[in-house]
Design a protein that fits this description.
The structure is a homotetramer. Chain A has about 375 residues and is α+β, with helices and mostly antiparallel strands. The first copy, chain A, is built from nine helices and eleven strands. Chains A, B, C, D: This is Ergothioneine biosynthesis protein EgtB.
Chain lengths: ~375, ~375, ~375, ~375
């Protein structure tokens, strides 16, 4: 597929994700980690306008100069108008205006991509594609948060399908120790944090062929897992106490029965479904309770050819750190990954919300250990 | 006008206030004191449904049982579904659904009011009218906050008119001391906090015939009023320091010139306009700087026949306290006023946002001393 | 008694209060409203050094120039050394150094007072006496807080005696309405907030001859007073919920029995003792539950000749506001009272911790409505 | 040296560290990371009483049953007396009482150690030695914080000597890549987090022979290092902005000159001294600005035989994670290290405050990335 076609396809998918929404759903920001859907739609557009159109298209006329500080990831002050705003406080630009902005930039981009694009700009455009795909995943998880924390529990879409459960019996797959190659080594797109293929030395390890199910996690809950500090990191235990956590996000215990909010609405909990929406702290505590551990990201990368993956982001034991020789690209693009390499954990795999073909075996996702609103899961190792 | 006609008129005005809004403007809550417009529309409807229709209309079918905890002033937990929500996080019910809710309740109410209404219910219905009128004022001030804190500074309506400035020269009117009658003593509606007409003894005082203008307040600013702790209460000074306050709300100093956000959009500051959007702390500091003081609510009530009032809520020196013999009505209606009688200041008069005929000379409005989003102003006394 | 003798007597009493303390007790500050005892000893000394000695004694040599910002009520930055400190973080100056500071200033003051003192300075010295007496009361309440919140519950002194309980049966004393004189009108010392004797008009009222006892308050607790929002101000109810309040300060329910920390150590609660250490919120809620109310400060002042008072500070319904004609003295002394006249409630009477002859019938004490560490109590009115 | 002698020597050194203190210095806790010196003295004593004496000495009589929740690392509620306390709020037990507690436990411990001690208890006693040595380091850094944040800048001791500066010219030492052995492999004491000697694969690297000096860091400051977000992690940049950081801890810019608080008091900054008291965020930003990076803990362990170390704790790029095969010991002792293995960075080496022979080449110290009150430093790698 050529660049312009690819552009159209990816841009359209963002809007398809939002089709089931009411206008009001585009606007709210219930917690700081969630962004309003209209912000995602505007911000991904701002990326193409700012990094491709404005520097490279002669006489390009900015859609609205004020959008620069509405849709920039970091709100800045412009001139003397110092106004501190949170994304969820902004009723304007309206959803209609955001769609007009998208149409305006899309037209200019398709024009631009239909001509010859020099290689270094192609690279930047492809980065824009991947950037938009990351926001597509966030759109879905943020929409779930917005609807799932509304006391009316609205359904996103009756057509939404969560994963097909793998019914094969779980086994542990053994790997011998020694030197392994880690990191991306292809010619297609990858993020800078995957680069620098290099050798690591691993001890022998075993890893589960399956992800943990709701049923297995219920055993942890029923065995008092949330009440016993021995299974938890000190910070995890603080998090449990402070936030009165006693189950995964979106679980509700009503009249003696477990329910679970899904994009299909509030449902009785299905025991054989794959567990999701747990923090790293919970993943670690569950593994401790099992007498096992989480895999490192290197173990995962070596083992992943031997099992199915891709329906949950899998917490690893690894901290998000630079690979040997990592260096940031100069300029704004260089801010993409490197500056987040502290206090976060690596997740591997992909989730039901990840756009098709967006992830790969070397892909390094990362979140703070207390976050749960992504479609996260647990794979045990020992 | 009969009750049903009055009902229709008042209910319609709430919707007229919202006519210029985009759907998105109905949803957001930028600070805790501001409520989303759709919440005001729903909450005033919930009042009639809860206190009139449900207890008094045979076989009345609630519009939606969940609205009870969405539109109640105090979010409560329902059964086992403990979900803490802030009003600004709720994208649902949608604006359309809220208007459907209004139409549904209006139909039932008009039916109810078209038959004979017993006197004690008439009283409750009239309380509902006044309740809705108070929310009409809040609708306007909240809408101003929502639009005026948006970096795009959207105009509410080009037709909006702020007050006609009184151009008469200000004078001080003298009143002799002695015993005066205070409080409501009529047969029309009043709030319980105005009741109990009683005598107070006042010292002789003088009060200004006019409200303070922007120009006079600019003198205070230019004389370093925000930098000199001597003019301020200790708590006022903390408030100035902590929040870096250096002008009234909605004022912006851009490129050496003062601008002011109004419901007509961002405008250059008009020096002769009546000052508005200042806190009690600022009103007190300004009076101190002038070598004067604010009137007490009793002085104001005695003097108000001698000057024009009604375009700004006027901060008084009085704390909001019960009149002699005040007692709360039993039940939920009794929560209306009495429970707020601590740590608040009385404001007298009415503002440009107050519905016609809603206020009167004995009316006691009240807010915390740091709040500025209402159309507040200053009248000096000595 | 001459000024020098009076000075010695008052200064000595501050040190006598601290005699039972360990050095460590002088240092800590468990909450922001409590100051370390050594700070009180230093601050009262700094007052005499700053306002009497430095401006009036030729060649007076400051004890330590740094003490100015250690013992000033408002920590300020000195030159370029910007260090934000809390009083409880300061291990130095040591307790020994503070006593040396007191001895040094005392010697200079006694020399100064032994000569002729001009009238305006006499006034300032007498203000210093009253200032130190106010800190003597704070010393006792702060020491009680420091020891009473230590898990070892140390005894302050076995000799400490709380009040003798008045065993006369409580009655309600009736007062007729009309004009009464309020405020100080003598030639002795009073604070500026009592000045301006003036007339007020009161409605007829009744007031209790006795303060509320522990027993009566236990009835409120046992009747669910802390669980029923109807008795509380909205802010009081928030305070109860947020801080999980279910009894007066220093009460502990241990193994089915009520205990109470006193300056004699932890004791079983004596039911006939006068209730103390309750907030205004609690006083109001208790009165509501009784179907009565708190007196205003004017009612209290008129009625106080008819009952015994002086063992508890009695919460009134009145907000702390200026009397007619109140004006602040120029300079630092003017900061004494006026700047606190917002968001506080007036207390009348005196407590077991108040130095003898410090209070009087026109004395206006004031605290924020949530505070409980003073020896506060309740007198009912209706 | 036998166990009893070793015990005496180590216990005595804790008290020697405190010899220069005033009683008041033992009591305060200016920030949550700092503990009052008397708490360290009590807590290390509580360790021996709780884990050695109470379970193993027949008829041992606890010194004071209440000390259990005063000196436990985690304050717990005892029975019905639920009192939440912070360490810095506790004036009791007094310093004298804490020394009595030490003497009492020391006598019992010396008796116990003079008889035959079974091997598993010997291990626990040696853990107690190392535990006390860790608190000796904390005693020094906490005392520095207490005195260095006092506006009087008291001297700890004129005899205190910071490090001798290595005057050799810095060079970069090269190491080839390949497989290396990491972790403790001896028969002496080590912590559980060093255990599991294992192989790692390293890329070739270079590491500096010297630590960064004040002078080099001043270049970073003067080049605007604290004003350029490009050098910082996103969280580091937030930390700089929120806390208005513009220099290492204890540096003060007074009248155009840099000063530095040391345990000898406030001094002019010595440019050739080894930089200390910087956070990981600052270490990372400095390395970025240099175009270099921090070493990993594995690189450091391999290289450390080739340079002098031991005067500063050296921040590494490595997150604090378990070594392969790590498992927690059962019971309270197992809480020692494992539960902290999230969101912290590894520091290697030892500082001027580390007791002699306490550290070693495999020692893994760890702190949160924002902390600066330890004697931390920077060694560059590339």
């Amino acid at each position: 597929m050529n660049l312009a076609e690819k552009y159209k396809q990816i841009r359209k998918y963002s809007e398809q994700i939002c089709e089931p929404l009411e206008t009001e759903d585009y606007v709210v920001q219930p917690v700081v980690d969630v962004s309003p859907p209209k912000w995602h739609l505007g911000h991904t557009t701002w990326f193409f306008e700012t990094f491709i159109l404005k520097p490279n298209v002669f006489n390009y006329k900015e859609f609205d100069v004020n959008y620069n500080y509405v849709f920039n990831s970091y709100y800045e002050t412009i001139g003397n108008r110092v106004i501190r705003t949170d994304r969820g406080n902004l009723s304007r630009p309206s959803v209609n205006d955001v769609y007009k902005y998208r149409a305006y930039v899309d037209e200019a981009m398709i024009g631009f991509l239909s001509a010859e694009v020099p290689p270094e700009l192609t690279e930047l455009v492809v980065l824009g594609f991947n950037h938009e795909q990351q926001h597509q995943e966030l759109l879905l998880s943020d929409i779930k948060y917005i609807l799932g924390n509304n006391p009316l529990f609205p359904t996103y879409s009756a057509e939404w399908k969560d994963i097909e459960q793998d019914t094969a019996a779980p086994t542990f797959i053994d790997f011998s120790g020694g030197i392994h190659e880690i990191g991306f080594n292809g010619s297609d797109f990858c993020f800078d944090n995957e680069l620098g293929q290099h050798q690591v030395y691993l001890q022998p390890f075993s890893i589960s062929s399956q992800l943990v199910t709701n049923n297995e996690y219920l055993d942890f809950i029923n065995d008092g897992g949330y009440q016993n500090f021995n299974y938890w990191h000190a910070e995890g235990w603080d998090w449990v106490q402070t936030n009165k956590i006693n189950s995964p996000m979106y679980w509700h215990f009503i009249d003696g029965q477990w329910f679970c909010y899904t994009l299909n609405g509030l449902q009785t909990l299905k025991p054989n479904d794959t567990l999701t929406h747990i923090s790293y702290y919970e993943a670690y505590a569950f593994a401790s309770w099992k007498g096992m551990r989480l895999p490192t990201e290197f173990e995962w990368e070596i083992a992943a050819k031997s099992f199915n993956w891709g329906q949950r982001w899998e917490w690893t034991e690894s901290a998000y750190l630079p690979y040997p020789g990592f260096s940031k690209a100069p300029g704004a693009i260089g801010e993409y990954n490197g500056k987040f390499m502290v206090n976060q954990k690596v997740l591997r795999g992909a989730s039901v919300a990840t756009p098709q073909n967006h992830s790969r075996i070397t892909y390094r996702n990362f979140f703070h250990p207390h976050l749960r609103w992504q479609f996260t899961g647990i794979r045990l190792a020992k």
